[in-house]
Amino acid sequence: MKFETKVLVFVLTVLPSDIWAQSLDRMTPETPPLLWRDGYVNWRGKLVKPRWQMMSADDGTKFAIDLSKKSAHYAAAYIVDGEAFNKSNLFELQFDCAAKVFEVITSMDLKRAQIVETKARQLVCDDAQEIR
Questions:
Q1: Is the pTM of this model over 0.85?
Q2: SS (H, E, C) 27-69
Q3: What integer pLDDT is reported at residue 52 of this predicted model?
Q4: CA angle at residue 31 from 26 to 36, to 5 degrees?
């Protein structure tokens, strides 16, 4: 036997088996899913720590609106569908309250976003008019 082979055999016999072999029972545990209440990453890639306000749409859909940026005519909304974070339930709305024009940034169906848009507009724009 070559010297290198002898060294390798020696090392493998001396080392405990859990160091050089992976067993299925010692796999690292899965990380818990992200919860929507903890925050979100906006379309710019920035991590946002929200101030959620829970609301319900006319059809009973439960959603949360982030109030941390409403003074800038901006709102992020999340349609609540369980505790785990679902990126497709998040959308961002930019309002021009005077002209009633807004921009929606989302990957979800826009009809689903329209459920929440009216209440979000009222919340953001009514407060903006009170400040003036």
A1: no
A2: CCCCCCCCEHHHCEECCCCCEECCCEEEEECCCCCEEEEECCC
A3: 92
A4: 170
